[in-house]
Amino acid sequence: MEKVAFILKTTAHPTRIAIVQLLAAHDGLSVTDISERLNVEQSLLSHHLTGMKLKGILSSHRDGKNIFYSLKMREVIDVIQCLAACTFL
C-alpha cells in the first residue's frame, strides 16, 4: 500500500498522468515530442518531468541538445489503469 500511495501522490495531476500514459505507449520521447503531443508549454512540462524523475517514476538521457524521457517505474501504469477502470469515476 505504501508504493500505491507513493505513486498516487507523485502522479496526482492530469498532466502527469497524461505524461505517464504517453510514455507507456512511446518509450524514449524528447521534451519537445511530449510537449507537442500533450499541447503543454515546455517550461511547465519540464517542471513535471523533473519532479517525476527525482521521485524515480521516470528516467532520462541526453542526446545532444535533447533530453529523452522514459517510464522507469512500470507499476504506475497498473495503478492508473486500475483507477481508470473504476465505475464510480
Automatic annotation (TrEMBL):
Keywords: DNA-binding, Transcription, Transcription regulation. InterPro entries: ArsR-like_HTH, HTH_ArsR_DNA-bd_dom, Metal_resp_trans_reg, WH-like_DNA-bd_sf, WH_DNA-bd_sf. It comes from the Bacteria. Residues 1-89 form the HTH arsR-type domain. Pfam families: HTH_20. NCBIfam families: HTH_metalloreg. This is Winged helix-turn-helix transcriptional regulator. It comes from Hymenobacter jeongseonensis.
